[in-house]
Amino acid sequence: MSFRNSSRMAMKALRTIGSRRLATRNISVMSRNIAASTTRFAPRMTAPMVQTRGMRVMDFAGTKENVWERNDWPREKLVDYFKNDTLAIIGYGSQGHGQGLNARDQGLNVVVGVRKDGASWKQAIEDGWVPGKTLFPVEEAISKGTIIMNLLSDAAQTETWPKIAPHITKGKTLYFSHGFSVIFKDQTNIHPPKDVDVILVAPKGSGRTVRTLFKEGRGINSSFAVYQDVTGKAQEKAIGLAVAVGSGFIYQTTFKKEVVSDLVGERGCLMGGINGLFLAQYQVLRERGHSPAEAFNETVEEATQSLYPLIGKYGLDYMFAACSTTARRGAIDWTSRFRDANKQVLNDLYDNVENGNEAKRSLAYNSAPNYRELYDKELEEIRNLEIWRAGETVRSLRPEVNKH
Ligand SMILES: NC(=O)C1=CN([C@@H]2O[C@H](COP(=O)(O)OP(=O)(O)OC[C@H]3O[C@@H](n4cnc5c(N)ncnc54)[C@H](OP(=O)(O)O)[C@@H]3O)[C@@H](O)[C@H]2O)C=CC1
Ligand SMILES: CC(=O)[C@](C)(O)C(=O)O
Ligand SMILES: [Mg+2]
Ligand SMILES: [Mg+2]
Description:
Catalytic activity: (2R,3R)-2,3-dihydroxy-3-methylpentanoate + NADP(+) = (S)-2-ethyl-2-hydroxy-3-oxobutanoate + NADPH + H(+); (2R)-2,3-dihydroxy-3-methylbutanoate + NADP(+) = (2S)-2-acetolactate + NADPH + H(+)
Structural class: alpha/beta
InterPro entries: 6-PGluconate_DH-like_C_sf (IPR008927), 6PGD_dom2 (IPR013328), KARI (IPR013023), KARI_C (IPR000506), KARI_N (IPR013116), KetolA_reductoisomerase_fun (IPR016207), NAD(P)-bd_dom_sf (IPR036291)
Helix content: 55-70%
Shape: globular
Distance between the termini: 47 Å
Number of helices: 20
Pathway: Amino-acid biosynthesis; L-valine biosynthesis; L-valine from pyruvate: step 2/4; Amino-acid biosynthesis; L-isoleucine biosynthesis; L-isoleucine from 2-oxobutanoate: step 2/4
Number of strands: 11
Protein name: Ketol-acid reductoisomerase, mitochondrial
Largest sheet: 11 strands, mixed
Bound molecules: NADPH dihydro-nicotinamide-adenine-dinucleotide phosphate, (2S)-2-hydroxy-2-methyl-3-oxobutanoic acid, magnesium ion
Strand order of the largest sheet: 1-2-3-11-10-9-8-7-4-5-6
Family: Belongs to the ketol-acid reductoisomerase family.
């Protein structure tokens, strides 16, 4: 039985059951069935079209794409492939820590480069990097590395490039986790030297998750891209590095496509868009007389704690199947209104990303000497909004928190 069929059958089963309790019980049976059928039929559902060494051509809903997987890079192969390399992680923030620790745990030679005695320097020491051995000021780390992994914030990459560039000498590899610096070079002034491989591995998630998923034996999905290949090995190196930093499956992109999709995604569904939708719904409920507890539960808590995890696990149709017939009818009916309204905003957003406006704004804001204070102030305003203050109370009432 395919997943779709089992899901449809489960929905049908649910429809015939009147009581909420029975329905709930049935959902857990459904979840087990789906899990079982997914496992049992996994090879057919995810059948590779072509199997070449280390690469699979997968059918993504009718479009064929190449993918690479961690399974093809057992640890011995990884260590052997990079045995003559030293990975120099430059910057030890969200991505620097996640990627650096994962590569170190897999047995690769890794050094970290950050400015001495800053917040990152201290954090690196706490994480076991040793000054003078595996932890150095930026330029020294670059001189020790063969693969220079620029994980400074995008604004800091622009600011530090004039000092960094002379150390990126022939034979080294320049690695980014974003297409930003290179694609918006008219603004960043980052012109990679012509005699080095330039590659990108972009984990599609926060650096914190890059680390936690790896520790759980799972993996973040990442994209990779090659901007400049002088050795003929740039692609293979990028894929190996993607595995080294903790990726599970890896898909191919270009620097341009990565940066555009990433900036759209984070401003849209992943962060900005969802923040806007949460706020809009919360405000309407409050303006129309609903209490904060009700407005927050119906907007954020139920989404993050109950419904969205179901989408993550088995897809949207599974989440719909787990909800009432009333909810399903309305949700399907209202989808097109939301889609159409949001498509206009998203097209506007895409234009502003593509024409460099968003990069310009981000560089100007994040290069200001007081950008951390400005950001803290904005975040404080968000934190103080009624919706998030109400959320704090709601979270404090979760039984696992409220143990007295
Ligand atoms: N955050 C994420 O999860 C993701 C990020 N990326 C990309 O990864 C890259 C790294 O981003 P992220 O991990 O968020 O970076 P962070 O903002 O978390 O880290 C910034 C690092 O840069 C250092 N830094 C900042 N300013 C300077 C400066 N002027 N001189 C020297 N060092 C400086 C900081 O050191 P100090 O403590 O000394 O200030 C810190 O180590 C970016 O290209 C980003 O777009 C890609 C996917 C997801
Ligand atoms: C986490 C991630 O991939 C983002 C949202 O694009 C980012 O932090 O830049
Ligand atoms: Mg991003
Ligand atoms: Mg991203």
